[in-house]
């Protein structure tokens, strides 16, 4: 199919580059902000390990296949994209700052000053760079819980911010893979932030909720309290480890183990009949065997229990385990859809748990109502708010160990846009 037209200003493209799959989504955004899905492409990912690029050529090839499929479906030549990023290199920091208001009322420049001062107080390693600067709350004259202080009277203005950073090398390698497909990177967005925007409800964000995005290579965590991001973390275990366990215990090839996991996997033994049997392919030319399904369930349950226990430990160490008791936990990501995962999570965490699916609204269609598309849908929503977003280049200045001074003007603009978007959304 011939490419019919170039990417117009009101067309946004999300590129979810995951460990197991690459997904490209194309949407048209109306003047009212409504999105209409016009194209999508999906291709197996072979060049990433635990969310990080380990083979540039393989990653480029997979991206190109997904983008080509999205172009054919949409009739649009894709030129620039919003990209999701994940991996255990992701770090997060909370910081607080206070400034004296410069006039009779708080202005935008006061907000910029207090947020920038908080950012400067964060000491990050030299091999990391900021990805997101998220405002949690403002405090005016000791009055907390203020979302938008501009226009208010006050003498002192305080801000609590949450900074998320990523390894410079990981960001550059991801960008280069996209650029090697002759695409421009409009922005790089942390995947759990995108997923949170796609699957969390407003009440959950306000009460206090933990999003758990279980991908193939990693499990991403985001804690949102009173509408603001308070903690993000990455657990370097995901669905691929479940598959590897099945392959090892059942002595079956990896591809067969993946099929068995998807078709018969369950994380809770009481949901499976003790008498049920499944057929398991053997390695090499040996004949297939029949085993009790409970043998498979024991393997799946053990690994999912480990994932949830690692998250429980992370929440306890961060101090947010009690803060999410009202809103509970939302599971999303492709590996979250295995039978019994929600029930097992409820047993371990002792809070309400549900499966988070992207809402089939804003014209995106029911075909995206699948947990594996949570990041892609969230990236589209982010992109729709940033149709004039800045471009990320490899030659941007890196961040020094203790400050974020000497920013490139493009980076300054990007930071301002990120602040305003996340203030609005969270």
Could you provide a short overview of the structure?
The chain has a domain at 5-87 and 168-195 and 359-397: 2-Layer Sandwich (Nucleotidyltransferase, domain 5), CATH 3.30.420.40. The chain contains 11 helices and 20 strands.
Can you describe this structure?
With 426 residues, this protein is α/β, with parallel strands linked by helices. It has a domain at 5-87 and 168-195 and 359-397: Nucleotidyltransferase, domain 5 (2-Layer Sandwich), CATH 3.30.420. 34% of the residues lie in helices and 29% in strands. The chain contains eleven helices and 20 strands. It has helices at residues 56-74, 108-120, 168-179, 191-199, 202-207, 239-250, 254-264, 293-318, 341-349, 374-384, 409-425; strands at 5-6, 11-17, 21-29, 35-44, 48-49, 52-53, 76-77, 80-85, 91-100, 128-140, 143-146, 156-167, 184-190, 209-214, 219-225, 228-235, 277-280, 289-292, 329-332, 353-355. Helix 6 crosses helix 7 (254-264) and helix 8 packs across helix 9 (341-349). Mean pLDDT is 88; it is low at 389-426.
């Amino acid at each position: 199919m011939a490419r019919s037209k170039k990417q117009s200003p009101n067309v946004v493209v999300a590129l979810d580059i995951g460990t197991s799959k690459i997904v490209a989504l194309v949407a048209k955004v109306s003047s009212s902000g409504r999105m209409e899905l016009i194209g999508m492409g999906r291709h197996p990912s072979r060049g990433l390990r635990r969310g990080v690029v380990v083979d540039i050529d393989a990653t480029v090839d997979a991206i190109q296949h997904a983008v080509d499929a999205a172009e054919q479906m949409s009739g649009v030549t894709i030129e620039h994209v919003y990209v999701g990023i994940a991996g255990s290199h992701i770090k997060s920091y909370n910081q607080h700052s206070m400034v004296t208001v410069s006039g009779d009322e708080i202005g935008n420049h006061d907000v910029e000053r207090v947020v920038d001062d908080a950012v400067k107080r964060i000491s990050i390693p030299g091999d990391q760079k900021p990805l997101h600067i998220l405002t949690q709350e403002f405090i005016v004259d000791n009055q907390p819980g203020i979302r938008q202080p501009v226009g208010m009277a006050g003498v002192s203005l305080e801000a609590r911010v949450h900074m998320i950073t990523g390894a410079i090398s990981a960001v550059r390698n991801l960008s280069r893979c996209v650029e090697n497909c002759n695409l421009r990177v409009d922005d790089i967005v942390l995947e759990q932030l995108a997923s949170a925007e796609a699957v969390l409800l407003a009440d959950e964000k306000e009460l206090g909720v933990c999003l758990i995005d279980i991908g193939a290579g990693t499990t991403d965590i985001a804690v949102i309290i009173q509408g603001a991001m308070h903690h993000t973390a990455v657990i370097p275990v995901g669905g691929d480890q479940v598959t590897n366990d099945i392959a090892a215990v059942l002595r079956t090839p990896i591809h067969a183990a993946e099929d068995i996991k998807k078709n018969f996997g369950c994380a809770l033994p009481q949901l499976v009949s003790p008498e049920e049997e499944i057929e398991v392919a053997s390695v090499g030319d040996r004949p297939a065997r029949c085993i009790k399904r409970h043998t498979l369930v024991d393997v799946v349950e053990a690994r999912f229990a480990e994932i949830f226990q690692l998250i429980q430990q992370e929440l306890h160490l961060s101090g947010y385990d009690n803060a999410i008791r009202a809103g509970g936990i939302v599971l999303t990501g492709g590996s979250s859809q295995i039978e019994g995962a929600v029930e097992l999570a409820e047993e371990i965490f002792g809070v309400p748990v549900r499966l988070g699916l992207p809402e089939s609204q804003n014209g995106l269609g029911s075909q995206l109502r699948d947990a594996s598309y949570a990041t892609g849908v969230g990236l589209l929503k982010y992109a729709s708010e940033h149709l004039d977003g800045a471009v990320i280049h490899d030659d941007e200045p890196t961040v020094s160990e203790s400050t974020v001074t000497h920013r490139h003007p493009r980076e300054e603009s990007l930071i301002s846009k990120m602040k305003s978007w996340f203030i609005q959304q969270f």
